[in-house]
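The methods section describes the discrete structure representation at length, but only in general terms. What matters is that the chain and its backbone geometry are given together, residue for residue. Nothing conveys this as quickly as seeing an actual entry. For illustration, here is how one protein appears when written out as sequence plus structure tokens:
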Amino acid sequence: MFDFLIVLLCVLPVGGPFAAVLRLARALRLLRLVSALPKLQLLVGALLKSLSSMGYVSLLLALLFYIYAVAGIHLFGQTDPVHFGSLPAALLSLFRLVTLDNWADIFNVQIAHVPAIKVALYFVTFIVFGTMIILNLFIGVIMNSMSAMHAEMAQPEPRAEPRPAGPSQLAKEVTALRRDVAELTRAVRQLRPQRAEPGQDDWASVP
């Protein structure tokens, strides 16, 4: 089914720039390695198990971004419209801050026009809450899911308990047992000699 869907995506009569994108679906066949490698299957299972918890952490991070973006517009929107002139620009600048990608450049631009205590309080608190705490929550959620997956894989599968035999099952077993006894009796009679020779014990003549 997986291969069929990939082939179907590749042969769809779609033109334009989307045709090349659909042909790249052949690279998805590499995902079949997940079922072949147990360690990779463990990692993928841990990521899928942590999606629900990561959603709540992402929601918390989005709220933090929105609050600091609105605060940044009010504090630095007049002096630095490039980075904090609008909500999208402020969110993009905060994303640059949370990744610590040359955040000092934005910091130096603000500190030249706004009091240093406001700039330091804004930037330091956002970096501490955004980078040091919330982003580390993602790592904690993934590690917790990996430990849960390790425990599930290490736990032996429960054995199926035998079901209590019903009346029909008991009747079948009794019939099979009688058949086995009849076959054993027939085999024993075939092994016995037909007539007892003189001087032998009479055990063979016993029915």
Q: What stands out?
A: Residues 202-207 have pLDDT under 50 and may be disordered. The two ends are 67 Å apart (CA to CA). DSSP finds ten helices and no strands in the chain.
